[in-house]
Fold each of these.
Amino acid sequence: MNYSISVVLPNYNGKELLERYLPFTFHALENSRCKYEIILVDDASQDDSVTFIQENHPTITIIQNAQNKGFSFSCNRGIMAAKHDLVLLLNSDIRLAPDYLKKLLPYFRDSNTFGVMGKILDKSGHHVEVAAKIPRFNGYKLKSDKQAYPKSSQSSKIPTTFLSGANCLVDRKKLLELEGFDEIYSPFYTEDLDLSMRAWKLGWASYYEHQATCVHLGSHTTKNFFQKEKVKEIYFRNRMLFHAIHMDRKDLKRWRLYLLWGEVIPKVMLGQLWILRSYAAYKAHKYQIRSSRRKIRNLMLSNKGRISIAEVTETIRGLLNNKEITVL
């Protein structure tokens, strides 16, 4: 089957990154032999990103946000404008290997595939930064801090808890059915975990391909434009939001108690008062949480019935049990 690819590239003040890494993206697209388009969604940049693209890459479609709205909003604008079979969600600080897309395309022969991502190396190009994510529960918290990759290049498909929003190739029709990223997580973090979890709950699988390689400069926008404590505050808020959205109803009360007494209060006692801002921001999203829960419930009922976050975890771990993997 011949596929076509829409690249969705969110950008904020990334002119230097675009200049450096876009040639690698074009190379990988040409090697894929797929019809393609590139959509750059500029998130109200203050540098010359848009001018650079207009002058040097006139074939790229540019969508400009009037205000800075964050990763999820920008990606969603690109996703809704995409015209092709598959969507490549790509950060501007990612350098793709020439055969990156060729390694990912075969996964879509299976109609059950939601998406696939390749191996992310750190900026040195020698160390694995992101591989397949292994899910586990720590009390009432879903964790995916362990990673794995196959010991053999001949190993069959390796499932992953979620696809990194920095470098994943996704089935566009499935992505549209999920309505893209949930913008409750704006400006950044956890939206890619949420997206893949919703796909798993509908019975759609996410995979990791170790032979497809890219290099990541590393949170360029986040580090340059947000203070460290603010990043931590947003991260913990979004983890709270994720669990509030995805926990089974029967476990919600116990999870809320655990959140308050097991996470928030201990951090406050240690002087980490930023956690109170995370908690207050999470509580302020009460109605959006209800809306997100309702959307997932309705999608599951119209597809394969209700699937819990625990069942998704068991499914992924069960698939990994049959694989020869190295755990990081």
Amino acid sequence: MNHKSDEQIELISQLLGEGPFGQKQQHEQAERVGGSERFISSALPELQTESSFVIETRPDTGREERKGAPEIIYGAGKETAQVIAMANSLLAATGRAIISRVRPEAIEPLREAFQGNTVRIREASRAIVITKPDYVRKRTEGQVGVISAGTSDIPAADEAALIAEEMGCRVSCIYDVGVAGLHRLFKPLQAMLHEGVDVIIVAAGMDGALPSVIAGLVPVPVIGLPTSIGYGFGGNGVAALLSMLQTCAPGLAVVNIDNGVGAGITAALIANRVAQAREHQSQ
């Protein structure tokens, strides 16, 4: 456990020991510095008039240092102004902001708002990474493989790949090798294993069979990523999720439907731990 985790656990322990959670802060008013985010305490309803109320945003700027996984702004369902405010806070604190599921109409306003920074757009996964000019992405030597059963599964797979890359891993991708033409899988999978991947993410919709096939073949952990690709009785990813959960192949863990972020974070945490162990063994 790192020092940041120790500090957070100690802080929570102290807060819980002071009585009803948050009692000490109920009458506080606060203004967040470094972004356009201002909030008014819910304990002061008389101030929450239509003209003064501002929606609060609280991006977790210390998450990566504490947890090993970055804070990620989920763009869907948020107003563009909220996304910009949160990204500003993350940029100020960490030098980088990652936004997933960006709404198409928010792309140009984000470009304009962050003209002085590097804005990278991943069209397949509808994700944006904004970095300060002097930001340097860390390298951990962790190695993650990402496989998709079909091309329709690429958006979820690409989201997972992006997150693993941003967590410092080297990522290898194989797309369109599903069980309907299983002969397409073996040579690229063999090459991926020869590269020394520490963990493999497998995205699949429809019947969701590919993760079980791969988990039965490889000596590394496999993370099943069911996608909402399919139709009929088990459509919208339900059949894929249930198939992966029902697997008889050992070593397969499963995230929720279309949860590329969760798959990428889990894979990168595994790969980065393996990379640390390799480094210690070599010393």
Amino acid sequence: MVNKDAMEPFTTAFANAWHLIWTADADLMGVLALSFQVTGLAVLVSCLIGFPLGAILGVGRFAGRSASLVAINALMGLPPVVVGLGLYLLLSRAGPLGVFGLLYTPTAMVIAQTVLVTPIVAALTAQVTEEMHREYRDLFATMGMGQVQQAATLLWDGRFALTTAALAGTGRAFAEVGAVMIVGGNIDHVTRVMTTTIALETSRGELALALGLGLILLVLSLAINAGVMGLRNMGMRLAHG
């Protein structure tokens, strides 16, 4: 039989977590707002870099292309703590970028997430555009289109598939904890986002806020995956329509 007394702290924590969500607790909303701000900006910058980079790798035929593809795919598995350590060394007062005073700021967290997300967006974009290029290669040749024009055309034509790459990067960014904690410092009301708050509150035994944010993070994860599947199905319908 389950010991009700032993379960009471957990049931109370869940009840308190739901209360924080339902009442839009100020601390919870502040953490959410910063999380969306940091992740949204990081994904935007990653797409601005990753889409054209991936398209050129998918379409282009140049020396070093294979090595570049291998590097991009390898960078998808970058350990977040290593990225955080590297950026810490760059952004600290003794580092080459220390003069800008970016360490322990949301900007540093955006940079960290951008470094982690850009390879994902670029690699998935390269895969999509390369597959599409095989189908349209003869048409492009007859039209006399250069590689840049081909890349731009495929980016537009494959926009639904590429949106899934952006959503995949968004999921990675929201789930990130190691790098943003190192360069952000997890400072209350300054650089504290969902994942770092969950880690801190759990270590302190304050489960209500951690559970509340965890539930929201799960809902976001489900929404992102549903969005990926929906866009993929839409693209397939359009392709066969």
